[in-house]
Amino acid sequence: MSGFIICFLIGLGGSLVYLLRRKKSVKEISLFVTFSLLGFIVWLSIFLGYKVSPDRFFGWIIDSIGL
Amino acid sequence: MENARISGWQFFLLSLNFIVGTAFFVRPGSIIAVSKQDGWIVPLIAGIFAVLIACLWLTLASRNPGLSIVQICTKVAGKYFGGFIALLYIWFFIQLAGWVTRNLGDFMKTILMPRTPISVFHLMFLIVVCYAVIKGVETIARTIEFLAPLVVLIVVVIYLFTLSEWKWERFEPMFQVSTWQLIKDSLPVIGFPYMEAVTLMMLVPYVKSRVKTGLLLGITVATLLISGIVFVTIGVLGVTRTSHFAYPLYIIVQELQIAEFIEHVESTIVIVWLIWIFIKLCISYHCAVTGICQLFRVSDRTWIAIPLVLFISGIAILTHENIVDNIAVDTRYIFQYTSLYGIVLPVLLLFLTWIRRFRKGESGGSA
Amino acid sequence: MKGQPIIQHGKRFLIVIIFILSFGLTGCWDLVEVNRLAIVNFVGLDRNPVDGKFTVYYQVINPTGVAAQKTSGIKSPIYTYRIEANTSTDIANKIFDIIPRQPFFDHYSAMIVSERTARAGMKEILEFMEKQRDRRATVTLFVTDDPLSDIMKTYIPLERLPGHAVGSINESESMQSGRAGKQSRVKDLVENMESAAFTVLPFVRVSGKVMPNTDRYEEIDANQGNIVLQGGAVFKQDRMVGELTLDEMPWFYLLNGKIGVFNQSLILDKAHVGVQATRTSVRKQLTMSSGRPILKINIESKLQIVENTQGEKLTVQNLAKIKKQYNRQISDKAYEFYEKAKRNQWDLLGIEQQIMLKRGKQWKDAKKDKEIWHQTKLDLTVKCTVDMVGITIDPY
């Protein structure tokens, strides 16, 4: 897991440096960071064993609506 | 938004391959397990409903010419509510990509390489697909134009060879299931793969001509292909064995012997499926990325596409634990869940479009 | 063009991608090195019905023994490993206790089970086989009542791999004599597991004494220590219920329409005429008449005369006599076979299964009655044409 975190941070840092040097718009950079963090959180939850299946989640919603 | 153009023929191939894609391998087993000898009717019924639903989408698109479904959301439903619906769609495309990726992983791990970690397949595939997505929809369309004839040819030739095992008795007793039951059984099939085709509404603005023919013909041909393969599966493998297998189509090819000495041709069918998965994944991935770009008005896809590799591969792992889990969710929820995106939201958007036009007409008239 | 950066950095980007992908190449995990494989060719399985213990024999190919026949040194083309275990899963564990290589099941050509295993029911074994991705259901399945160790521990002449040999015997019998059938694979047994139809698998024995030493390759008598086809094992679902002799086998395949070539010796006024049915088409139809099922079978053969010991010339009239005798003999023997099967409670024509598949009101009651196939009347029509008479026309 630590390997994953390190790789992720290096990747994120490297990409950020690249993006800043190419003078990308703030919106683009923030979207990039947001999606990277989303992916990071998803993988972290997998590594830590908090697996929440989106399918099951929506299934639960459908059940509670009563369809 | 990219200035890509795709032809009507390419759009037809996109729709066809998108729908057939994973369903061709995943569906026959579950259809036959439920509807037995009458399984081949189920895709036909589902296809008829799908055509009706597709007409709904096409109406929505023609009321808002030149706009993708995400753009339609923000245009007719306003910045915030519309933005929310658009986000829902984007999430659906991402989830779809996750499902497709996981189908690939499950298949490869069960059948071919049991010791390889499943994420390796996911990541390898997603990186290639990510590259294709960055290159744009024209590239994807041209790739499909190149690959589709090859794929269809291989499939037809291989399954023609399997006909040596054909027995008509395997279809007996026919027409045992009542029509109502068949319609019920076809609901999950309408959900997957047909309702997922709402994704294609992201590509409609790029199509130069013949959108309607492309989509409707794509659905029709896909229906015939799926129904045909269910038919072949029943005739060649039989209901008993098919209903026990996860990937009956693979088993058919695995047990194929051409002229006593050509055996083990199953890898060819794996290649076919990989191509199909590649196509479907490309489209859903591309639509997710384009959706995000359109919603947030970003022009460059590259840096949106790259982090999605991580996200989608994570979703693919989370989506289900194993095939049993997948089948359970599929039979129970898939129709309800996808009809949110395939029916409920389009109807809502169409309704809002009418209201908008009505108001516009009214204000135009009073001015 | 909006995608400018990627166009500029396309090559660098590609190289990076290829570099990353090469790390993921799946060879790292599912690596298969041919020299490290134990290629299994023939599997023998015995399960003690009392304590449920498995004894499994694996015949593993020894590549140097197969290839280097002329050089001195190792001569054995195969080695037989025996593994004893309590469950199928246990076998998977114990296999590594003795086999120094990775067992490779993708290419095994035949499997044999002991009669007691077959009689006790093979459901568990078949389930296990169907679940494995590397064992295919197209291998021919054999049954034997000889001790499995005899079958698995004998070298046989001519064909160096016994698995291939028995497979080929079954194959050629099914094409040349009708005394075995192609439908004797694992998948055929599995397919009938949930139906009332019967399956017949080839039954083999070892002839003479076992030859567990490679010196046997220098022995001229091929009958000693060879695996010989003996008949058929009748299966209902996953359970063996009886045995057919070799002479009865063609009738099973004929009445089920699965026969290729078969031979008949016709008796005509003390002389006999040998005919070979080169092509036989069989049509079956099950109907119900006043509460009793009738199975109509239409058999049409194309005959070739292979032997003629008659004293008279082969004329059109004489040919008509031969044809008539053929029709009579086939239907007599077929009836006889059907009656015998019925006496043994074997529904070898699959009548019960056909009734189950029928639709309509008149079949409704028949479906409930499990024994109704017993009352089925067999209505045979045999026709034939002689289209080849051989090189000579008249006998000397």
Descriptive key words:
heterotrimer; A: 67 residues; mainly alpha; elongated; B: 367 residues; Amino acid/polyamine transporter I; 77% helix; 0% strand; globular
User: Low-confidence stretches of chain A at least 5 residues in length (pLDDT < 50)?
Assistant: none
**Quick check: average pLDDT of chain A?**
89
The helix content of chain A, as a percent range, equals over 70%
Q: Structural class, from secondary structure content of chain C?
A: alpha/beta
Number of helices of chain A: 3
Largest interface: B-C, 38 and 30 residues
Q: Note the gap between the termini of chain C.
A: 94 Å
Q: Give the total of domains of chain C.
A: 2
Gross morphology of chain C:
globular
**Series of H and E elements of chain C:** HHEEHEHEEHHEHHHEEEHEEEHHHE
- State the end-to-end CA separation of chain A: 40 Å
Question: Proportion of β residues of chain C?
Answer: 25-35%
Helix content of chain C: 25-40%
> Number of DSSP strands of chain A?
0
Tell how many strands the DSSP assignment of chain C holds. Answer: 13
Indicate the structural class of chain A. mainly alpha
Q: What kind of oligomer do you see?
A: heterotrimer
Write up what this structure looks like.
Chain A: It comes from Cohnella terricola. The complex is a heterotrimer of chains A (67), B (367) and C (396). By secondary structure, chain A is mostly helical. Chain A has one domain (2-65). Chain A is built from 3 helices and no strands. The mean pLDDT of chain A is 89. Chain B is mostly helical and 367 residues long. Chain B has a single domain, classed as Amino acid/polyamine transporter I (Up-down Bundle), CATH 1.20.1740. Helix content of chain B is 77%, strand content 0%. Chain B has helices at residues 8-35, 41-63, 69-77, 79-112, 118-135, 137-161, 179-194, 211-237, 239-242, 248-254, 266-296, 302-319, 323-366. In chain B, helix 1 (8-35) packs parallel to helix 8 (211-237), helix 4 (79-112) crosses helix 5 (118-135) and helix 8 (211-237) packs across helix 10. The longest helix of chain B has 44 residues, at 323-366. The radius of gyration of chain B is 21 Å and the shape is globular. The two termini of chain B are 34 Å apart. The model of chain B has no long low-confidence stretch (mean pLDDT 89). Chain C is globular, with a radius of gyration of 27 Å. In chain C, strands 1, 2, 3, 4, 5, 6, 7, 8 and 9 form a 9-stranded mixed beta sheet that branches. Chain C has a 4-stranded mixed beta sheet with strand order 10-11-12-13, with helices on both faces. Chain C starts with a helix and ends in an 8-residue tail after the last strand. Chain C has helices spanning 4-8, 10-24, 63-67, 88-98, 115-120, 123-131, 148-152, 162-176, 186-191, 249-255, 316-343, 351-357, 364-368; strands at residues 37-47, 54-61, 78-85, 102-104, 110-114, 140-144, 198-207, 226-236, 239-245, 262-268, 271-289, 292-308, 377-388. Chain C has 396 residues and is of the alpha/beta class. The longest helix of chain C is centred in the last third of the chain and has 28 residues, at 316-343. The chains are: A mainly alpha (67), B mainly alpha (367), C alpha/beta (396).
